[in-house]
Amino acid sequence: MIGTANGVRVSITGLGCHVPERVVTNDELSTMMDTSDEWIRERTGIRERRIAAPEEALSDLCLPAARQALEEAGIGAEQIDLIIVATVTPDMAFPSTGAILADQLGAENAAAYDLSAGCTGFMYAVAQGYGMLAGGLAQKALVVGGDVLSKILDWSDRGTAVLFGDGAGAIVLERVADGGFLGFELGADGSGGPQLYLPGGGSRSPATEESVAERLHFVKMNGREVFKFATRVLVSSAESVLAECGLTIEDVDVYVPHQANVRIIEHARQRLGIPEEKTVIDVDRYGNTSSGSIPLALADAKADGRLEKGKLVLMTGMGAGLTWGSGLIEWTDGGMG
Ligand SMILES: CC(C)(COP(=O)(O)OP(=O)(O)OC[C@H]1O[C@@H](n2cnc3c(N)ncnc32)[C@H](O)[C@@H]1OP(=O)(O)O)[C@@H](O)C(=O)NCCC(=O)NCCS
């Protein structure tokens, strides 16, 4: 799917994020499994990640992030008429974390649901929020991306356990007078599904003694194949959305790629020809937070002053599905009220 914003201006008017308190360093991981700080840093660029407490669930991370985003947008929860939570680690299968969050916020006028597109979930949810606003179905949307992957990792599998972390970010989408989203490109290749998946717990392999014994309820990944896929689509998706919007890589001021691995980001950045200083990287501090990754990186870029009004920001995510998605936005500094 690819398209431009078609004249309807919608932008991010509030941004918030939240990560668990507990920092887990590579050295701490190497006391739990056969790995080392040196291996993890060299292969991934990750130094540490945040890990949720046993009682902490996704909505506990989404709620503070959402409150921050609403406060920054200067609107009350009752004004929100759409909530989308992008995640693969909802509090439970149902009700949706979107509905749980709406209740916690007091967003009683909102339609609320979850969206599953792996680590690309946030980009899918932003595009969908854009579409709902541009189509006139909603006026003010809260889009949250977050995951608590530590709860579904196989801590006996060093090939996956060291890569991920927990975190969430939230944005408010509103109509604006100028700037805002220019276009999106989203895609999926289901034939690559078995490269990164969690087979247990659904209707194909429900929770049984056998499926639990076979550890089907944990993330499984073919790291090398996902690496190849990621480097390919980060480049092709970014190039497609730029071309669709009639822009070039030179027009991009801030590049916010999915934070999976520094080597993947570096590969894409060089192939695209984006200078290092325009690229946002925080995977060293958070690991791969799945749907939380792009909003957390946006919050980082905002905190260090990079997201000024008028700047062109390119975001690209990729992940399970296999899926990918890019969005281009001309940054704005507020809604139309
Ligand atoms: C997972 C990843 C870091 C592995 O890096 P790599 O350079 O491909 O490493 P390999 O898989 O070739 O493994 C090299 C060796 O390191 C070992 N190894 C794997 N994980 C290890 C760890 N945490 N610590 C130490 N050694 C490890 C492997 O067992 C292998 O040993 P062997 O050669 O004796 O078999 C890399 O493939 C990757 O980042 N893939 C993409 C993953 C991703 O981003 N997923 C999410 C997308 S949203």
Provide the fold topology.
Elements: E1 2-4, E2 10-18, E3 23-25, H1 26-29, H2 37-44, E4 48-50, H3 58-73, E5 82-86, H4 97-105, E6 111-115, H5 121-134, E7 140-148, H6 158-161, E8 166-175, E9 180-188, E10 196-197, H7 209-213, E11 220-221, H8 223-244, E12 254-257, H9 262-272, H10 283-286, H11 293-303, E13 312-319, E14 323-330
Parallel strand pairs: 5-6, 5-7, 12-13
Antiparallel strand pairs: 1-9, 2-8, 3-4, 7-8, 9-14, 10-11, 13-14
Helix pairs in contact: 3-4, 8-9
The protein binds coenzyme A.
Output the radius of gyration: 19 Å
Average residue-wise pLDDT: 96
Helix content: 25-40%
Strand order in the sheet with the most strands: 1-9-14-13-12
- Count of individual helical segments: 11
How would you describe this structure to a colleague?
This protein has 337 residues and is of the alpha+beta class. It is 32% helix and 24% strand. The chain contains eleven helices and 14 strands. The protein has helices at 26-29, 37-44, 58-73, 97-105, 121-134, 158-161, 209-213, 223-244, 262-272, 283-286, 293-303, and strands spanning 2-4, 10-18, 23-25, 48-50, 82-86, 111-115, 140-148, 166-175, 180-188, 196-197, 220-221, 254-257, 312-319, 323-330. Strands 1-9-14-13-12 form a five-stranded mixed β-sheet, with helices on both faces. A five-stranded mixed β-sheet has the order 2-8-7-5-6, sandwiched between helices. Strand 5, helix 4 and strand 6 form a beta-alpha-beta unit. Helix 8 runs parallel beside helix 9 (262-272). The two termini are 31 Å apart. 52% of the residues are buried. Bound molecules: coenzyme A. Residues 35, 39-40, 43-44, 119, 158-159, 162-163, 221, 223-224, 226-227, 230, 260-261, 288, 319 line the site of coenzyme A.
